[in-house]
Each structure stands twice: as structure tokens, then as C-alpha cells.
UniProtKB/TrEMBL annotation:
Transmembrane spans: none
Lineage summary: Bacteria, Bacillati, Actinomycetota, Actinomycetes, Pseudonocardiales
Source taxon at top rank: Bacteria
Gene3D superfamilies membership: Homeodomain-like, Tetracycline Repressor, domain 2
Name of the protein described by the UniProt record: HTH-type transcriptional regulator LuxR
DNA-binding region: 35-54
Domain HTH tetR-type: 12-72
Amino acid sequence: MEELGLRERKKRRTREAIMDAAFALFRESGFDGVSVADVAAAAEVSKPTLFAYFSTKEDLVLRRFLDDTSGPAFVIRNRPSGVPALKALRQSYLQRLAKRDTLTGLNDSTTAITFHNLLYSTPTVMTRLTVYMLAQERELATELFASGELDDEFTANIVAAQVFGVQRILADHNAQEIRSGRTADEVYPAAITRAEKAFDMVEAALV
């Protein structure tokens, strides 16, 4: 067990070293100006090793912040007993804003700004993110239907699409304000207000 723990820690360090090298290079030269070989060399790993951790060049940008085990479907599956699904999703999003989750757009760290600059300036990165989000949207729809709170699968699919649409628009607004020069702390109150209004609208549509 100890040996496995050491192995996992080494893998995590290697993964983080690759991501750190990639972001440093992307920040300096842009996404298209950096090759996978450049990243591998900077991280002192081979290309096969890099691809063992990241399937595509776009994943070097996205996988720093995407987590398959903590998306909206995970929130629904693990919400406290008696808490409605949409309330759990709202609470989760507000908590992510408070923690300055990069995917909410409300993060003014150098790494987060680099991430959003790459995302909005590189069509292939945005396309890859869309693929991930659509997969998570389908998973959320499945969990919403399984919760028994919605009438049918069609409604569950509509609500899941609305939730992901709301989160995308909120993140776009937050990121735009950060990119305009405002700090995350300055944007936070308005971000909370927008999020509450958006989730109110989704819930109202189900009444």
C-alpha cells in the first residue's frame, strides 16, 4: 500500500510538472506557438509519457481545472437527503464562486487569466471544452431524471441544458470583467447577484 501511495504521488507530481510547463510556454508564446514536444522538453519527460497523462494538446489547458468527479451530476448524487436537485446545484455554484473556482470565471490569478485567454482565443480548446461539457450535461440529465423530481427524461434534458447554459454565461460575464482589469473581489458581489437571478429563472421555468 505504501508503494502504491508513493507511485501515485510521483504520478501527480509528473502531471503537475507537465501542466506547469505547458502554461508557462502558452503564456509566453500562445497555444499555436508551442508544440507538444516543446512542453515535453520543458517538463523533462518524453512525448509518450506526456500523452499518457494528456490525450490531446488541448487537454494540457483544460485538465488543470476539469474534474470528472466533481461536476453537477456529482453534486446531485451526493447532496444531503431532502435537498432539491436545483437547490443543491445553486448552493454548489455559489460555493464555487466563494472559492474563486477558475471555471466560474471569478479568479484573477495569473494561471486563471492565462486559462481564459487561451480558452477564448483558441477555437480548438473551446471545442474540446464543449465536448467535455456536453458529456457532463448528459450525465446531469441522467441524474436529474433518476432523482424523481422531474416528470420525464425530456424535461431532465432541458433542465440540464439550462443549468450548463447558465453556468457558461455566468462564467463568461465574470471572466470578461476580470479581463477588463477588475479584481475577483470587486466582481464577487455582482457575480453572486447574477448567479442568484439565473438560478431563480431556471427554477421559475419549472413551476
